[in-house]
Amino acid sequence: MTLDDLPTPCLVLDLAILKRNLAMMQEAVARHPGLVLRPHLKTAKSLDVAALAAPGFGPVTVSTLAEAKYFAAGGYADQIYAAGITPQKLDTVAALNAAGAQVKVITDDVEAARAIAAHPGPLLALVEVDVGEGRGGVPPDSAEMLEIAHALGGTLRGVLSHSGHSYNGRSPEDMAAVAEQERSGIVLAATRLRQAGLRCDIVSLGSSPTALYAKRMDGVTDVRAGVYMFGDLFQAQLGTHAPDDIAVTVLTSVIGRKPARNAVLLDAGGLALSKDRSTANAPRDYGFGLVWDEDGKPGFGEAIISRTHQEHGEMTSSAPLPFDRLPIGAKLRVAPNHTCMTAAAHDRYHVVDGSREVIAVWPRINGW
Q: What is the third-level CATH fold of 16-229?
């Protein structure tokens, strides 16, 4: 089977690029003795990808209970569920742990912490600390941080932070500065727990940019990163990988030609590509994705998806499009702005290894 045989739109995953990206992150983490890579699988959502990213059933990060159950069933016991937990979800996590998993939940709320501590099942928890992102978490130097930790009682296992604000950086120096801000903040939180006589085995931080560019990681036990596996147009502009290290693309077909406006209609629209516009604020705005030829190579200048509808994507370019090479049914590939969002609507990867031949089909776990 080749890409020509596939119904569109669908996801294409280039195995060689994936392996290259995994090796890059493993090498970056290995610079810091004792630091453990805990890959975030919210993007991949695939046991086949996990086997390469966390060999030997190593520790992983998940973002949904569907992922937690899927990866636990696949042999990945050591997990952090890195989204704030609600009391209604505790039974599911406790059941996974009673069956042999070690799923750690996170909270930044004292009432939720009390619910975790009061639950009769086997639960493990981390205090979520805000180190500058301004999303979830409590300040590492706050009284609230210690109050939550005390409320967790015997379920407490440590602290967790996420440096999503590293995506605002535009240079390795910017991202290294955020990495040190996060490291110092999470280590402060861990130190305060220990000084209060509380348990703190896990000091977990991360994002792909900070994992790659951190100059030091002393005091940290594990680093969580996920988008590095596949890359995307936004990450390429941050400098976390080269532009040709985007492993996941959307295969699409030409369904309309509009020479009068120098446009081609594709069957990959807002659902297949997502409507993420992260590159809008980057140095180069790629609309809703950058269009390559069927081999994943630039073939039409810098053609982009400039407009999307639910099942239509409009490809345009500042240069004249070669309509003689774009008949109805011609297949193209679209590199995504934000691969996590783009992959979310698809249930499988069609795996290639530098050619059009499909060497495997890897399922994904979707939903919550």
A: TIM Barrel (3.20.20)
